[in-house]
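Request: How about a record?
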Amino acid sequence: MLRYINPEAAKPKCVSIFTKVGCPFCAKAKAMLQEHKLPYEEMVLGKDYTVRSLLAVAGATTVPQVFIDGRLVGGSEALEAYFATAAV
């Protein structure tokens, strides 16, 4: 539909972030996403998922774990590197 309305419009990125309450690295990652005006869906450990689910999805047990357009970017340092090299 977007292509019909505006063929030159960029498709919005689909962003998901796995976080934990009180995690400073999670706060940093969310701030970077907000800086780049990327809305995201946040899943919170213990509320929306378990460590077992995180391991199954991301292959990691640490947070944050950021996915952009279905691709695992990783934690806050990996997200910083992503923004340094990607045209967002």
Summary: The chain has a mean pLDDT of 92.
